[in-house]
Each structure stands twice: as C-alpha cells, then as structure tokens.
C-alpha cells in the first residue's frame, strides 16, 4: 500500500512531504521536538492538517479543511512506546479488539488474535492479563494487536524505547520478521540507528518540522547531509552553498573538499562532512598549506577509550560545533579544557561535499 504525504500543521510548525512505496519501511529520524510524533499523529487521524493531503493506496485520508477520514476507518495501525493494553482484558481479548471493532464475529476475531499471537511468538500467553506480562511480552502483544486488524499502514512510534536491554533485541527481531513480509508499508520513528539499520529500507530526517535528508539508511548513517544524521553517524558537518571551489559557509569562509556521490552543481545548498578523527588540533594557527583552518573554543572534553573526543565551537560560526578525536597524550600536551582557545585543521581530502534536499 503506497502512502503520499504533503501536509502542513501551522500550530505545530510542521511542513512535511514524503512518499512511502508499497511494502517499504521508512525510518523517521530527528531530534526531540522535531515533529516526528506529530507527523504520525496526522497520519493516524489524531491531528487534522491545516493544509495539504494524506493519500493511502489512492484513498484521500485528509485534505486541508475538506476530506477527513476518522482514525477507526483509516486502516492505519499505531504502535507506541508503551504497550497500552486494556488491563481488564486478557491477551487474546486485547488482540481481538481490533477485528471486533471492524465488525468481525467474536469467533473470527478470536481466531485472528490467536493467529497473530503465534506469529509474534507469544501464543502461550493468550490467557494472561497485562499485569502478568514482562515489558517485552507486553510489547509483543501490542504488536500483535496492531497487526490483527490488518492495517494498510503501520506506524511505529519509538516501539523499543521503553524496553530494557534484554527485551529490546528480542522485540526488534519480531518486528524485523513481521515487516520483512513486505505486504504493508510502515513508518518507524526512532532515535536508535540500530533500529533504522535493522528494520528500515530508507531513512528520512526531520528537523524543525521539515525534511532535511532522505535516502537509504546506510547512506544517511555513513554520508549524512543533515546535522542530526551527522550526529548519529558521529561525524562533523558544516552547511553552506556549494561553489566550484568548495562549500561557502554563512560567514563567507570556504571549506575545501572532494565532491560526494552524486556530485552537485554549484549554487545549490550543501554540506561538508568529515570525521572527528580527521581534525587536527593546534594551540596556534599552524599556517602552511592546509586549506581548512578554523579558530575555535573548546566546549567539552570526554575520554573515549584510547582517544579523547574534543567538542569545539567555531569562532566564525558559533552555532556550529566541530568534534575532534585526539590521543590522550596530545590532549595532555595541549592542556585541553573547556574554554581553551585552539585552531582546527582538516585536509581537503578528508572532507566530502554533498548536496542537501
């Protein structure tokens, strides 16, 4: 079932356009408050968009002030962080609730519930009450409940966030198996790159209520084009405008680097991406041939095994941090501490220039 979204929600400063192909799983990534859960609420019918439309498999679910299909008629399943099972019903009745609400007979709903409970590996829990379940068991039951109504679209809002380190991998495997069937589209909101890698075909990054990056999960995590994608990948990123010579930043400075894949025509917006391991830290401007040199102030210093991660703020671009990885010996020799003035150097060959959406 294909999904087309092009919506605006003025009250939440959301303006998002994206498409999900039939059977595709798209991970929605972004910082807290970026609008990810708001987007899911719009798709589920819990919020009405100010403008634009939502179309699922050719059916308009919402269109500005016009068409608005209520949640129970959308064919959309929503799985949240918490299982939210009905405490007064046993597991079977919880899972049968969806089919019963859609008009299935009691017998048919029960049969469907038992089928799906077996599919997610908890058929043996059918007679238990929610209070008798562990967190991982309850979330498996919640997955079964979401699937029992055969939704055309599955919305997963941080489904593993509330689970402990033992339960999360087990439930992730259940979701992987369910989503791999390819018979329904899904949107997965998550902060965990492992969830995106294990479950999704493609990743969309949402920042400030806007899509800032979209592409295969592997690409977003290894060659990011958004600030949040770079943070997930542990890389440094500087935005600007692409030119024939490199990337021109807001302060007028030029970042030299190699064209990414695909290369971009000059004039468009882009980003320079590089690894903290490629950043050399000096107490003074070293001069010489390196084309990428910035004065900066140390913000934070944190040991990471055999290296020290130094987070700095650029003097010319104070809204942007640049991280550097240095050896313990170098950190001691440079006397790195918050507030220290340093100079950063990155070779052009270590920088990749990418266009942005």
From TrEMBL:
Residues 3-233 form the ABC transporter domain. Coiled coil: none annotated. Residues 287-355 form the Mop domain. PROSITE patterns: ABC_TRANSPORTER_1, ABC_TRANSPORTER_2, MOP. This is Sulfate/molybdate ABC transporter ATP-binding protein. Keywords: ATP-binding, Cell membrane, Membrane, Molybdenum, Nucleotide-binding, Translocase, Transport. InterPro entries: AAA+_ATPase, ABC_transporter-like_ATP-bd, ABC_transporter-like_CS, Mo/tungstate-bd_C_term_dom, Molybdenum_import_ModC, Mop_domain, P-loop_NTPase, Transp-assoc_OB_typ1. One of its GO terms (molecular function) is ATP binding. Gene3D superfamilies: 2.40.50.100, P-loop containing nucleotide triphosphate hydrolases.
